[in-house]
Amino acid sequence: xxxxxxxxxxxxxxxxxxxxxxxxxxxxxxxxxxxxxxxxxxxxxxxxxxxxxxxxxxxxxxxxxxxxxxxxxxxxxxxxxxxxxxxxxxxxxxxxxxxxxxxxxxxxxxx
Amino acid sequence: xxxxxxxxxxxxxxxxxxxxxxxxxxxxxxxxxxxxxxxxxxxxxxxxxxxxxxxxxxxxxxxxxxxxxxxxxxxxxxxxxxxxxxxxxxxxxxxxxxxxxxxxxxxxxxxxxx
Lengths: 111, 114
Prior knowledge:
The complex is a heterodimer.
Chain A: E1 4-7, E2 10-14, E3 19-25, E4 32-37, E5 44-49, E6 55-58, E7 61-65, E8 71-76, E9 85-92, E10 99-101, E11 105-110
Parallel strand pairs in A: 2-11
Antiparallel strand pairs in A: 1-3, 3-8, 4-5, 4-9, 6-7, 7-8, 9-10, 9-11
Chain B: E1 4-7, E2 10-13, E3 19-25, E4 31-38, E5 42-51, E6 54-57, E7 64-66, E8 76-78, E9 87-94, E10 104-105, E11 109-113
Parallel strand pairs in B: 2-11
Antiparallel strand pairs in B: 1-3, 3-8, 4-5, 4-9, 5-6, 7-8, 9-10, 9-11
C-alpha cells in the first residue's frame, strides 16, 4: 500500500545550526502538506505544496516539493528553541480528504 | 470560533469498559476524521466522514465505531477497551473532502487502558 517515509526520526541540534527533514512517498502525490506538533500539543498546519519543483519560504523555513512529486523537504535555517517539536509531512490518500502521515522527525534544540 | 474541541482531555479505563470520545467543530466543515498517535508510529487514521450521515473506515478501525448525525459532531466510541488502545486520539476537520484542504486538529484526548 501507499507509504510516506520521513528521515531522520530524531535530530538534535545546537541552537543556530540548520536542520533538514526529508519526506519520501511510494506514489506520486498531487500535493504534500507539512505540520508541526509542539511537545504535548496537537499537529498544526504549516504549508501545502502543489506544483512540481515548488519552493516556498516562511521566514527561516524553506519547503521544497520534488520534480517527480514523490519527495519533499523542510529546511530550517539557524534553529531556535521555539523550533522544538515534531515535523510531519502528509500526502493525500484515497481522494476523499484523507491524509497519510509520515512518522515525523522530532527536533530538539540545545540552547 | 472555538475551532475543533475534544473532551475529555485525559481518561483512564479498565479493560472491557466502553466510552465515547467527543469531538465538535464550529467551522461548518464537511470533513472530519479521527487519528490515533502512538510513539514512533505517527498519526494513523481510524475513521472519517465526508458529511453528515456518511462515515467510512480508515487504516485502523477495529474496536472503534463512529457516527455523524450533525455537521458539527463526530464522536468516537470504544466498544470494549483494550490495553492496545492506549494512545493519544486526535480529531481533525477540514472544509471539504478534497485533499487540497489543510486539516485543523483538536487538542487531543490522552487515553490509558489498564
